[in-house]
Amino acid sequence: MVAVLPLRLxxxxxxxxxxxxxxxxxxxxxxxxxxxxxxPNGSGKTSLLRMMHGLQRPAAGRVxxxxxxxxxxxxxxYVFQQPIALRRTVLANLAxxxxxxxxxxxxxxxxxxxxxxxxxxxxxxxQSAPSLSGGEMQRLALARALITEPxxxxxxxxxxxxDGRAMREIETRLIEASAQTRLIIATHxxxxxxxxxxxxxxxxxxxxxxxxxxxxxxxxxxxxxxRAFLKGDIVE
Length: 236
Prior knowledge:
Layout: E1 7-16, E2 19-29, E3 34-38, H1 45-53, E4 60-64, H2 69-73, E5 76-79, H3 90-100, H4 105-118, H5 134-146, E6 152-156, H6 164-177, E7 182-186, H7 190-196, E8 199-204, E9 207-213, H8 214-219, H9 224-231
Parallel strand pairs: 3-7, 3-8, 5-6, 6-7
Antiparallel strand pairs: 1-2, 1-4, 8-9
């Protein structure tokens, strides 16, 4: 089977109402690793993820997969900052992506129950998804995104507003998933980026200001702006 990656962005930019949100961006996303997209508030982290995933089309430039876009869309997933769930049971939420792929009812049940066990949701299968706690809802969103075994997962602030225990649980699941799924994660939490990222994209004013291996970036950032950001200073 031909791989969906690498993903290449060439002069890609995103605009809304005439305002540039991100770009132009030139990037190549390889087949392995966990990429943390970081930068000050308003730097374009979410916009970059949405443009790469295809939720928003670039106003200029190109976003190219190794396969036709329609095929590539079936082999990726996206987790929003505010988890979205069907107003149905946890089981129905896990089953939904599998139903779209035409699996048998028996296979869907088997895979949904196995995924619930991986994400500590077995005792919640019959519960209405909107009634879950914040941490449980985020685990459900991640479990549902990964149940189809996508080649790449985009996650926008997957631990926003979670307490330490819930954050640890989500990070553990992300690290486990990275063994077979390429992860692109937008985060404002530098501790989280240090813990799980293999490489970093540092955005500033909608542009890729610096990129490279995570350890190199955090140990010796290459620009004054990156150094100031990591110190917690305001970067303008």
